[in-house]
Amino acid sequence: xxxxNAVGRRKTAVARVYVKAGTGAxxxxxxxxxxxxxxxxxxxxxxxxxxxTNTSGQFDVKVNVYGGGFKGQSEAIRLGISRALxxxxxNHKPALKAEGFMTRDPRMVERxxxxxxxxxxxxxxxxx
Length: 128
What we know:
Elements: E1 4-10, E2 13-21, E3 26-28, H1 33-37, H2 40-52, E4 59-66, H3 70-88, H4 93-99
Parallel strand pairs: 3-4
Antiparallel strand pairs: 1-2, 2-4
């Protein structure tokens, strides 16, 4: 079977995900999720779509991810895997949608405005 590809995004992180039938191996930028992320609570995000659709150990996953931090990257990968699973079998969609895995989180960092210290914070006002 050939790879099914999908893209996941979160904040500034972009993950290109390739899923194919296999033994459940996950490779992120050439490393295992444990080596890439380090913290269990972050890399657990990556495997959640498989747990919710009862497909653990049935697919091999290769991921190229860049941009953002570990949290944003893990959520981008989660979205990419969810989209790929729906491409493979449309019956997975209700379970993934109920968990919120099919929704691209639109929240981004607000840009800094000119004449201000940060996006919303102003410089200190001095009356005299």
